UniProtKB/TrEMBL annotation:
Family: Belongs to the bacterial solute-binding protein 3 family.
InterPro entries: Solute-binding_3/MltF_N
Solute-binding protein family 3/N-terminal domain residues: 21-239
Pfam families named in the record: SBP_bac_3
Name listed for the protein in its UniProt record: Amino acid ABC transporter substrate-binding protein
SUPFAM superfamilies: Periplasmic binding protein-like II
Record lineage: Bacteria, Pseudomonadati, Pseudomonadota, Gammaproteobacteria, Aeromonadales
Alphabetical UniProt keywords: Signal
Organism of provenance: Aeromonas diversa CDC 2478-85
Signal peptide span: 1-19
Keyword Metal-binding in annotation: no
Amino acid sequence: MKVGLLGALMLLWCQLVQGAPVRIAVGEWPPYVSAKLPQQGFLCELVKEAFKEVGVEASFHFFPWQRSYKLTLAGEYQATMPWFRSAEREQAFYFSQPLGRFTTRLFALADRPLPELGALRGYRVGGTRSYYYGEKFASLQPELEMEWSMSDEQTLGKLLLGRTDVMVMDEQVVAFLLKAKGVPREKLRAHPDPVWSQEGVLLIPRQLPNAKDMVMRFNLGLRRLQESGRFDRYWQPYP
């Protein structure tokens, strides 16, 4: 192990032992995580409350998503979230208990056709660059007429303007953006069958001293939120 990395890891461990806040690297993904939102997004609030239950403070530091991941992997931050389980990530990180289930669906204007996932050929499909929509959608992409945007706001805007026929997006993000734009939810309809649905987790580097203890403490705090009913208050079901 390089001396610089070892020093960074020991510093993080000392900070944890001394009661300093757990430093969590994140990116922008409202309403889950955002420097512009109250409590930095509802998922940041949930994670902060889970740590608080076990006497640990948490602070959030914003970077592009891949940089957040790499900084945590390098030991410069103690955790990053939310991410999804994979064999590759499991080699480098411990996974927390689930922070919640993230569900992606197909959406269309309420007065327009909303096809099945396997029947999208011939439709203009909106999506946001750099997002992963699951294996099934990825396998269909070469056959689809995709209209890519640089942000979820742009993807939704194109659907509302009729520039696309269907869009694929996380349901919580859709609800947040519609509310922010003052657009009634009834303007859109969502397909009942998810395109992709996975549980997101907090990642803690395996190389971090006392990492197992940190995961156990966080999971205990998360369980306390669940048992008290407070956990469910953060996750509002999409109608």
